[in-house]
Each structure stands twice: as C-alpha cells, then as structure tokens.
Hints:
Number of helices: 19
Strand content: 5-15%
Structural class: alpha/beta
Helix content: 40-55%
Number of domains: 3
Distance between the termini: 63 Å
Number of strands: 14
Strand order of the largest sheet: 3-2-1-4-5-6
Low-confidence stretches: none
Amino acid sequence: MEIAVIGTGYVGLVTGVCLSDLGNQVTCIDIDEEKVSTLKKGTSPIYEEGLPELLQKNIEKGHLNFTTDYKEGLVGKQVIYIAVGTPQGEDGSADLTFIHAACESIAKNLENDVIIVTKSTVPVGTNEQIKDTIQSYLTNEVTIKIASNPEFLRQGSAVHDTFHGDRIVIGSDDEQALEVLGKINADFHLPIVKTDLRSAEMIKYASNAFLATKISFINEMANLSEKIGANIDHVAKGMGMDKRIGSTFLNAGIGYGGSCFPKDTRAVISIGKQAAYDMPILENVVDANERQKGVIVDKILRRFDTVKEKTVAVLGLAFKPNTDDMREAPSISVIEKLLEEGASIKAYDPAASRNATTVLPTTINYAASIEEAVDGADIAIILTEWKGIKEFPFEKYEEHMAEPVLFDGRNCFPLEDVRNSGIEYHSIGRPSIYT
C-alpha cells in the first residue's frame, strides 16, 4: 500500500522501516531537515539493533523515502500514520502539541480520501480530537477515517518486536478502517486484536502501567527481603513459576526509566484525575520507583560513610541495555546524588555517552572502556546490564582497583559466581559478599 509516516523518532522510524520491509511504499515525513538528510543517506539517527540494515535495504529497493515536504509526502497515500512525540507535561499529562501540529499539516495538504492511524501514545479520547482537528483545517473535500494502532516496542529490540511481538492492537469505530489495517498488519503474522478507538488507546496505557507496577512491586519485595534475610532471586523464582504471575519483569534493581513507563504511568494517573477517579496504586508505583533510584547510593554510604574524594566508576548510563536512550535513566539521579556527596565520577557506556553529556553534569569523566573506567577507582557501580559489562571478568576489578568493591544495581551475577571472585559485592535484595 501507499503509506506515509509522520515523525521519524523512535516509533516513527521503526514503524516506517518495518512497513516498507513488508513491501509497502512508505514515505516518512519530518520537519527536521538535518535528520531527513541523514536518513536519505541510509544512516539511522537512533541506536537500535537491526534498524540500520533494514533502513539501507529498503531505501535501495525503492520502498522507503524521506521528505520534509508534507504535500510531497502525502500525495496518493492510502494510509497515514501519526508517530510524533507526546512528551510529559508539567502535570503528568501527555503534551499533544506535536499531534495538533501534525493534524493541521495533514489537513492543509490532503488531496484524497485516507485512513489516519495514530501510532503515538495518546490519552483516551485523543483520536476523536484528531478527527475534529483535521476536519476543521481541511482545504479539500476529502473523507478521513480514524484508527488507533498503539505500539508495544521495547527499546533495544524494537525491530525484533515488530516482527515477533505478542499482539497487534487496532482500534477504530469504522469497519472499513479496521479491515484495511487488518490487511496491512496480516503480513506480520501476529495475533490481531480489533476493538474500538478508546479501548485501543487504553490498552497501551494499561499495559505499561501494569508492567511498571510489577517492577515496583518486586523492588519493594527486594528491599524487604534484605531486611529480613531472604534472597529476592529465590523469591522471584518461586513467584514466577505461578502461571498467574509469570517470571517476566520480576528482576529486582534500581527501578525503571526510559520514555514509556514513567511517562505512561503518570499519564494514566492524570487521566484518572480528569475523570475524577483517584489511582492510589499507580501513585505508589511512581513513588516507589523514585525511592528505588536512591537505594544503591544509600548502600554505598552505609558501607563507606562518605564518598568525598573517592572515585566512583559508573558502568552503564542508558536506562536499559541495547539503547542510547537517557530519558529518565536511573543513572542520572544516582550520579547527581554521588556528586552531591563529593564523589568523582568516571562513567562508561558503550552507546549512551554522547546523549549522557546533554543531561549529566559537565564534571563527569567519560571512559572509552570498562577497564579505563574502573582503573584506580575506589568503588564500581553497575547501573545498566550491558552484555559487555556482565561478561567483564571479576579478576579485572582486582587488577584495576586497589580494593575491589562492586555495587550491582541490576543483579547481573548469580551469588554463587561471585563468592570465589575475590571482590566485595553488594546487590539488590540479596546478601552482600565480603572478601
């Protein structure tokens, strides 16, 4: 089909590239001239496994192109996906400024009947607003049909998730729109859930809010386990074997971050307030996650009393591995607290260091390798469970640190593997190991 995707951020670019890989003719529209110029050359502006290869492949096949011109990008299109950002506002609600701007640009350049699909995460009822906004700005007599197709992509595995996800959700109050989108998505060979507009919008928020709840819950259990002498690894394993609970998202650590869970959980709370409905469970999920970010610093201060004039090696900056995304990464608050306590920071991340410089204090020293980061450090902290960090030999800590003391904020290693390592080791919800 002839498809346009508005927005070449994380969601828009992955959506456009993957739809083009199915054989559709896709034009991605973005007002950022520099980004579009980069994409036309086949270079991805985001770090995402498998994306550069698919981008280059489909440009070369002529299935994928990019433009800053709405009129050029929309001509002859049968389906238009809106995939612009919906950042969090000051009150926790989603900021729909970019959505409204995209709607106005669509309306003023639309010359044929079309199905408009919202890929962006938007509050319940937004798609109805989108239809009203576009119709109010239309300059030609055309018919628009509205649909919601929320994304459930994990950063770092978004391309894989697009082709191997759990389900595809399509919401519309128009049967023809549901039928067309069903045909487009049938080529992914995944279960398709067809529903109404508002339910589709709610499925996205409810899914992310539940996963955030699961993370905060297991972190609360980890903190309690430490105080009463239990091991959260064993607790989580025993819980996860119950099919009603499941083992995913039961990994204790320093909390969630990124662009989805924090923003979407707060957005659900905001939606509840607008509907005059309090959501104390989710409010506590958010509070618990904020507290959890401070757990690792508290451990360090209990062990050392002070970190003044000490060098701390921070291993991992991105909010999760296989991405360069620093949005709401726990590393930010951890590093800020350590700096307030007088520590010097040497940080390493294989992908996120450049983005980190835009959100972290300028006093941080960035290392090009794990060895460089831990060399001469008094303390090492793991904040992102990158493969290279998990495979870094324990003896290297002994080699590069005067007294190797490792704080693991992601519980990367089984305790059995650490006991004979020769290093002092502290993790989340588990007994500490001393040399």
